[in-house]
Design a protein that fits this description.
Helices cover 19% and strands 22% of the residues. The chain is of the alpha/beta class.
Amino acid sequence: MRRYGKHTDEDDIRSRPNRKGTRPRTNIRPAHEDAAEGMVLTVDRGRLTCLVEDRTVLAMKARELGRKAAVVGDRVALVGDMSGKKDTLARIVRIEDRTSLLRRTADDDDPFERVVVANADQLAIVTALADPEPRPRLIDRCLVAAYDGGLTPLLVMTKSDLAPPDKLLELYSHLEIPHVVTSREELAAGEAAHQVREHLDGKITAFVGHSGVGKTTLVNALVPEDRRRTTGHVNAVTGRGRHTTTSALALPLSDDGGWVIDTPGIRSFGLAHIDPSRVIHAFPDLEPGTVNCPRACSHDEPECALDEWVAEGHADPARLYSLRRLLATRDRKEGD
């Protein structure tokens, strides 16, 4: 049944009053110019522990940030209760621009990338020389993620009393990666921490490694006043360790202003999110040679200009081999 006549105007239309008032909605959001600056130390089930000046503050993400999530290492702006007292909660209203990103996917077919750490200066890749055996393909994947995200890699080899480091060092010698070799005795006595500490002063360093390599033990030695969970053991059957770190955590180094970020042990490091064209930036001796490469060159094909660049003596052939090995790691399983 027709409610209005054939020729209606707006006076004939009955409007329902807005019970919430007549103020129009707006997309304008407050600038929060008086927000406090902080750094995210850890994230746990939607609650973020942040360092604001000299105290830790529990916070949650403001609704206006939408799907954008803050991660460990992020510089953020906070409003609300910044006292840090029990049962208080602040709001993160802004995530500042990031200088670097360590990202990974669950596997190479997973389209969902996970940001592990933000704003780190370097990535310490911890691997045991034995018990468990080193996994070069996993190291390669961590290196690719570091180069892609703007982090400088550092290779830390543990348990040198069980196996010599020569073979592994030779594999990465042409990448000119800083490295530290430690034994179980040095790790237990704290001497390993002193060796690694020389590379950490004044920097934010994220530590990664698969379970059982001694990563968390090393972090405990670096920051003894803030020890993490007890370390796990390597399974004698599978050769794998038990995860003892379940969430990333930023810990301050004393005196020098540096930070250590301990991350959960990894068993795989997917690279589905990696753009191979960004990895070349970590090879300044090879990058100029890509000028004459065909469009979208993979740098591992017959038309690649890098072969001629190396043949002319501009770079060491071993460096080109190392680059291509890293770029090909997306197409190889970690155990290959």
